[in-house]
Each structure stands twice: as C-alpha cells, then as structure tokens.
Predict the structure.
Amino acid sequence: GQQLNQSPQSMFIQEGEDVSMNCTSSSIFNTWLWYKQDPGEGPVLLIALYKAGELTSNGRLTAQFGITRKDSFLNISASIPSDVGIYFCAGQALGLKLSFGAGTTVTVRA
Amino acid sequence: ETGVTQTPRHLVMGMTNKKSLKCEQHLGHNAMYWYKQSAKKPLELMFVYNFKEQTENNSVPSRFSPECPNSSHLFLHLHTLQPEDSALYLCASSSAEALYNEQFFGPGTRLTVL
C-alpha cells in the first residue's frame, strides 16, 4: 500500500486538554478512516470520511478530509483518561486495500 | 456473537509446530483480511479474500497459509515459523460491494514463536 506519515508518533495528554494528530500521504485517497486501538484489542473504527473537505464529528472527536485529498487530521476535545491508546489513520485509494499510518500513541501525563 | 471474533487470543508455539488461527465475522461481509501488527510499525496487510477467492498475497512467506472456506470464516495455518514472526495477527472484514472500504477488526491473536 501507499506510505502514510502519521504525526506525532506519541503524545502526552492532561485531562481536559484538546489534542490533535494528522496523517499525510504522497498519493490521493478517496476515503480516510480513523481507528483507535486499546491494549490487547483490535483497532476500532472511530470516524470515516468520504469527501474532500468533509468535517465529521463523533462525540468529542472531529476529523477532516483534507482538500488536497492527501491528508487528514483528528482532534480530540476535552480529553479524558479513557482516550489513551493508539490512534491509526488509514486511507483507501482504489479497491479493497487500506494503507495505514504507524499510529499515534496517546498516554496520560503524570 | 457479534462483530469479528478471533481464536485463540494468545498462542505460544515452537518453530517446528503447526497451528491455526481462526477468524469469524458476524457482519454479513464478504471480504476478509489478515494483517500482521508489529510494535511501532504500520499494520502489514498479508492476505485479502473477496467472496472466498484470494485476491491479494502481499509477498507473504509460504510458512503462512490462509484458507477461506466461506465468507464468514478465515483461517491462517502456521508451520515452521521463525521468532521474527512473533506479532499480533489481526483479522478484519468489510463489504466488498460497498463504495467505501470500512474494515472492522477482530481482537487479534498474540503469537509468540520460541
């Protein structure tokens, strides 16, 4: 699949903070997906984006499909302890294959 | 059972053993996938099945052998694995006819090869 650059690789959150992460690609995608993975579990789909410029929310999560179709970001507002985990972006160009980013690990700042 | 289930959840095997991983989806999907997840790396697609036909083999070594007897079940047969094959193996499913490929994952099998 295509190479996706996801950043940051890791971040520390304090309860109540807003956090943001993004993914960029050298290629155009038709779909952007955001997943969250808790320890010992498989990734769970959070938000799916289908159109360039689209902004979609799921509770405290908001994601946008970039206008160029080569990037997407995910925002978490007013973070809570259960937001910790690994967040993955995934892009679909054509067919059934998804390309995944390496993940953003979110942990709670002590 | 709902969603995508995988068994076993944990597996420890020697390099000479033969074992199988099982995946079952209860979502009415017709495309199924095997991924390998190693620490700090993107998910690596291994195999894709579309309506029980294998449509993708991502240069996976022959010591991994997939089987898809029907649209709901997917197996990964393992034999003479190497320690570097230790990883989390994830199964996913999606609707092959859908315009957008939202894949739904199982909880994974944590494999350790000694």
Q: What stands out?
A: The CA atoms of residues 34 and 41 of chain A lie 16 Å apart.
